[in-house]
């Protein structure tokens, strides 16, 4: 990698003292191919290659062994677009994302404000709100599966209910959303907390001198200063939520939930790949999913650029 | 240290914080109390908070059934290996992209940034067939290596290295130090806080990773903690007290790690705050 750069450095030694200094300075920053090589090797083998392979497999009828696959052109894609389960599972992932993202963003902000403004025991609040995020997803899911258990669970006990949380179509996804809020809000909370601590105090002092009350300070200083971090929190949450898998399958005992109402897109892909052994078809679904994720990510970049331009 | 005054607004906020914390911690408490009940008491209706008959039998059964110590060791091996490899390769790559020149750098950087959008969830099936072809299904290699190419960590460190003043390195180059020496003796020590953050988040992600180990292992002896608890313990028909005990065991190490590192984080913040004044 980058072998040609070596030849440039060689004649430099013959030049004047001043000239060689600048060149040696530069030389320090030259031909750094070996620094990135180990990462690129892993990246090529475990990200790029599977991605290309997935695209290739999506045009075949490969099974799990990968042997005897033949080329079927666009058949998998045609089938996927007419497969109601593709649309259902995509809808479930999207519905989950639409519920989770706004709730987490608001909740994380409120918790961070609280933890930022309480003067005593800061580490304790931080630990309390962040602790659930430290649980493995499967443990959080098992725990809430137990809490939602009708009759014997904490939720029914505390609220005096008898709700078929995990067995009724209209509650199942809601139960997964509640679990996810509790489990993951800590991460966004920490991002907001760090951002709040980064706002310089003198802004607030100046506003106070100008007679701004707490509400004004929040609307005119805190919220605008948090705009970037809010963008980041939302973007990370959207991408993570679209890929929801763990909580849903564990809470539903590895089944697609009541009437298939919690089957998510990732889950459907794995069902096709590892249960039905249709690797070609599963790859086609993965490619569709990748295109959707990429579109969301690119849309975000485009929005950011537009906002920056309009800010000028 | 001066004790801060209890103003009315502070009392109100502290009460509010306490209430919210109770809500956040209640699920842990319910799980803990369940793990200290007998299996029959755990599923009694109506439910109650405290065990009437405190017993450690679920915890004992957990250890007697054997698998859990295996899972714990597997989790430890996988997470420590993943964290070490990720720290090494992403620090090197972040520095390479931030501070050195080589042919095709911008194109490669673009490819890595595109990698931010690709996760095992999207790659799942083809990644599995790739790992299968390499003969790494049901091996430590198969669990570890595919977790070792996180574009996000490279990006975080790349951004950090860009912020280090070039003059620090240039002075060393003039004194005759080579690139590698500069990297190990000047750049890495300066980056300790960033490396710690990358390390901690990689460790959490790897310890808690479910999807990839779920795909790549079928052998219960090779499973990691989250994996074994979710698949093996559930498959016997759920024994709630034991499941809660296992869950608490799987969650505890990271909570301890966080308590331990949080002090350092707080100390670090205080230190930079002092330095800024």
Written description of the protein model:
- Chain A: InterPro entries: ABC_transporter_permease (IPR051393), MetI-like (IPR000515), MetI-like_sf (IPR035906).
- Chain A: Belongs to the binding-protein-dependent transport system permease family.
- Chain A: It comes from Streptomyces qaidamensis.
- Chain A: Residues 90-300 form the ABC transmembrane type-1 domain.
- The complex is a heterodimer of chains A (312) and B (277).
- Chain A is built from 15 helices and no strands.
- Residues 1-21 of chain A have low confidence and may be disordered.
- With 312 residues, chain A is an all-alpha fold.
- In chain A, helix 3 (33-57) packs across helix 15 (279-311).
- Helices cover 72% and strands 0% of the residues of chain A.
- With 277 residues, chain B is mainly α.
- Chain B has one domain (54-270): Orthogonal Bundle (MetI-like fold).
- Chain B has 14 helices and no strands.
- Chain B has helices at residues 8-35, 39-42, 57-64, 67-99, 105-114, 120-133, 140-144, 151-163, 166-174, 179-190, 192-208, 211-216, 225-235, 240-276.
- The longest helix of chain B is centred in the C-terminal third of the chain and has 37 residues, at 240-276.
- Residues 266-277 of chain B have low confidence and may be disordered.
- Classes of the chains: A mainly alpha (312), B mainly alpha (277).
- At the A-B interface, helix 2, helix 3, helix 5, helix 6 and helix 7 of A face helix 1, helix 4, helix 5, helix 6 and helix 9 of B.
Number of E-type strands of chain A: 0
- Estimate percent helicity of chain B: over 70%
Largest sheet of chain B: none
According to CATH, the homologous superfamily of the largest domain in chain A is MetI-like
User: How many distinct helices of chain A?
Assistant: 15
Top-tier CATH class of chain B: Mainly Alpha
Low-pLDDT parts of chain B are 266-277
Assembly type: heterodimer
CATH topology of chain B: MetI-like fold
* Beta strand % of chain B: under 5%
* End-to-end Cα distance of chain B: 18 Å
> Rg of chain A, please?
26 Å
- Element order of chain B: H for helix, E for strand: HHHHHHHHHHHHHH
- Largest sheet, strands/sense/barrel of chain A: none
Tell me what portion of residues of chain A adopts beta-strand conformation.
Answer: under 5%
Query: Which CATH first-tier class of the largest domain in chain A would you pick?
Result: Mainly Alpha
Quick one: which chains have the greatest interface?
A-B, 97 and 100 residues
Give the low-pLDDT segments of chain A: 1-21
InterPro entries (chain B): MetI-like, MetI-like_sf
GO cellular component, one term (chain B): plasma membrane
Transmembrane segments (chain B): 12-33, 71-95, 107-128, 140-161, 182-205, 240-261
Membrane topology (chain B): Multi-pass membrane protein
């Amino acid at each position: 990698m980058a072998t040609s750069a070596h030849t440039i450095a060689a004649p430099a030694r013959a030049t004047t003292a001043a000239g060689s200094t600048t060149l040696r300075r530069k030389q320090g920053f030259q031909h750094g191919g070996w620094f990135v090589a180990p990462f690129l090797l892993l990246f090529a083998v475990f990200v790029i290659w599977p991605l290309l392979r997935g695209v290739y497999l999506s045009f075949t009828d490969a099974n799990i062994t990968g042997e005897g696959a033949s080329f079927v052109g666009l058949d998998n894609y045609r089938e996927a677009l007419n497969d109601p389960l593709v649309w259902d599972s995509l809808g479930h992932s999207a519905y989950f994302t639409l519920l989770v993202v706004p709730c987490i963003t608001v909740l994380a902000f409120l918790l961070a404000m609280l933890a930022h403004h309480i003067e005593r025991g800061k580490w304790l609040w931080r630990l309390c709100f962040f602790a659930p995020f430290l649980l493995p997803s499967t443990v959080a899911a098992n725990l809430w599966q137990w809490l939602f258990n009708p009759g014997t669970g904490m939720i029914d006990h505390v609220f005096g209910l008898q709700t078929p949380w995990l067995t009724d179509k209209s509650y199942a996804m809601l139960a997964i959303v509640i679990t996810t809020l509790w489990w993951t809000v800590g991460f966004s909370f920490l991002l907001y907390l760090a951002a709040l601590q980064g706002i310089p105090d003198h802004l607030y002092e100046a506003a106070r001198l100008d007679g701004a009350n707490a509400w004004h300070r929040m609307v005119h200083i805190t919220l605008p200063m948090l705009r970037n971090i809010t963008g980041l929190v939302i973007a990370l949450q959207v991408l993570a939520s679209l890929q929801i898998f763990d909580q849903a399958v564990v809470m539903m005992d590895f089944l697609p939930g009541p009437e298939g109402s919690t089957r998510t897109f990732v889950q459907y892909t794995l069902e096709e790949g590892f249960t039905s052994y249709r690797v070609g078809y599963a790859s086609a679904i993965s490619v569709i999913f990748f295109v959707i994720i990429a579109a969301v990510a690119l849309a975000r970049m485009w929005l950011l650029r537009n906002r920056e331009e309009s800010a000028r | 240290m001066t004790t801060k005054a209890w103003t009315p607004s502070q009392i109100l906020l502290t009460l509010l914080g306490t209430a919210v914390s109770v809500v956040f911690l209640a699920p842990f408490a319910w799980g803990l109390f369940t793990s200290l009940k007998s299996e029959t008491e755990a599923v009694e209706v109506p439910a109650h908070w405290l065990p009437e008959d405190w017993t450690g039998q679920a915890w004992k059964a957990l250890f007697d059934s054997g698998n859990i110590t295996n899972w714990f060791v597997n989790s430890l091996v996988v997470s420590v290996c993943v964290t070490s490899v990720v720290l090494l390769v992403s620090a090197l790559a972040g520095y390479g992209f931030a501070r050195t020149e080589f042919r095709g750098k911008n194109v490669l950087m673009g490819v890595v940034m595109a990698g931010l959008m690709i996760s095992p969830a999207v790659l799942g099936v083809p990644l599995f067939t790739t790992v299968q072809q390499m003969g790494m299904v049901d091996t430590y290699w198969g669990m570890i290596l595919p977790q070792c190419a996180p574009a996000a960590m490279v990006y975080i460190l790349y951004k950090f290295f860009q912020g280090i003043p070039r003059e620090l390195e240039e002075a060393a180059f003039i004194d005759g130090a080579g690139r590698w020496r500069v990297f190990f003796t000047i750049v890495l020590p300066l980056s300790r806080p960033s490396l710690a953050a990358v390390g901690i988040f990689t460790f959490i992600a790897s310890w808690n990773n479910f999807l990839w180990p779920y795909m790549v292992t079928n052998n219960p002896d090779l499973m990691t903690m989250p994996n074994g608890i979710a698949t093996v313990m559930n498959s016997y028909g759920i024994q709630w007290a034991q499941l809660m005990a296992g869950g608490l065991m799987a969650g505890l190490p990271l909570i301890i790690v966080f308590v331990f590192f949080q002090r350092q984080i707080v100390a670090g913040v205080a230190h930079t705050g002092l330095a800024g004044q």
